[in-house]
């Protein structure tokens, strides 16, 4: 068995060894992905994250020369409920990693925004902004509930940079308490200037930021729909360069659909000309939610996969929205990752989409409705359509999640096989293990 990538270290520690059993018929695991690269064949186990060169038999028994594949769980007993097995493993790893408390805080200084994006899921929300009282209570809540040595703060909105004073004060509160902290941000980028960048690199301890753009300039202006437009398209590019120069990692997210895709090459040309220090700048494309839940999602994902060489040719890092993880994951989004969302009125939610039924408390009283949080993040009841999916370990979804791709399995396979082929290509050119991305 020629190993290309080792299995997950945590699983290797926790799982008992598998002993091949006589008189049992073994078949390929549902989590195995087979692919070709060049003239060679490979198989990847999406549960254990191990990759080997070779092929699997359609069936086998112990002692027939496939015992190593049985031990590595590439081959499993026929009739095994692999979904139940995955859920058992996931529960075991959760217990192993469990810590009581909050790992990270996504803070919305305001629901207000200077843009009116045509796809915004916050449309209709009341434009609330944090008061000084709520800011001070937010600081106290963080100090009372954090569990890690370094507090993780994520600034979101609305447009978080409409709440600069809030960000200033909360960061100041961390320093007054002598807590280490780092922060990140999701922003439209239009309000960033040299003074803000100085705050980011200084008092805010901001190490990365996601900037949303929507394609070439005509699409950007139409889709962002700023209340007052001041050539933000080029201004944002200049700000990206300055942030990268200051050591901040920048990821540009471009939301796409069939209306703006044809002008993406022009958008890439503009980014190439307008942004410097590209080694700190990543770019990825993501279909709008309406597209992801429609019949046309797969065709657009194929275009996104195929545009990768153009991104690299423009000198930017490729930052895939979908890909294979290197490690076994128990947390798939902020809702089940031990983080909380704090809204401008001090409410607590498990998810930045803030569906009303998922509110589970506030910064004064903490968790007041554990049932609401637990129901939103349920992992004990897998959707029927997901039970036999090879990508279950990478995209476990909550029944309450507002985003559901129409052709999720086909999309994941498209992106996974592409990532695996690139992994093997890189390993062949460089030698040793290569990251999957």
Q: What is the topology?
A:
Elements: E1 2-5, H1 9-14, E2 26-28, E3 32-37, E4 40-45, E5 51-53, H2 67-71, E6 75-77, H3 82-97, E7 104-107, H4 132-145, E8 150-155, H5 164-176, E9 180-187, H6 194-201, E10 206-213, H7 217-224, H8 232-245, E11 249-256, H9 264-274, E12 281-287, H10 289-292, H11 297-306, H12 308-313, E13 317-318, E14 339-342, E15 347-349, E16 361-362, E17 366-367, H13 370-376, H14 392-395, H15 408-430
Parallel strand pairs: 7-8, 7-14, 8-9, 9-10, 10-11, 11-12, 12-13
Antiparallel strand pairs: 1-5, 2-6, 3-4, 4-5, 14-15, 15-16, 16-17
Helix pairs in contact: 4-5, 11-15
Description:
This protein is α/β, with parallel strands linked by helices. The chain has a domain at 2-80. Helix content is 34%, strand content 18%. It contains 15 helices and 17 strands. It has helices spanning 9-14, 67-71, 82-97, 132-145, 164-176, 194-201, 217-224, 232-245, 264-274, 289-292, 297-306, 308-313, 370-376, 392-395, 408-430; strands at residues 2-5, 26-28, 32-37, 40-45, 51-53, 75-77, 104-107, 150-155, 180-187, 206-213, 249-256, 281-287, 317-318, 339-342, 347-349, 361-362, 366-367. The longest helix has 23 residues, at 408-430. The protein is globular, with a radius of gyration of 23 Å. The model has no long low-confidence stretch (mean pLDDT 89).
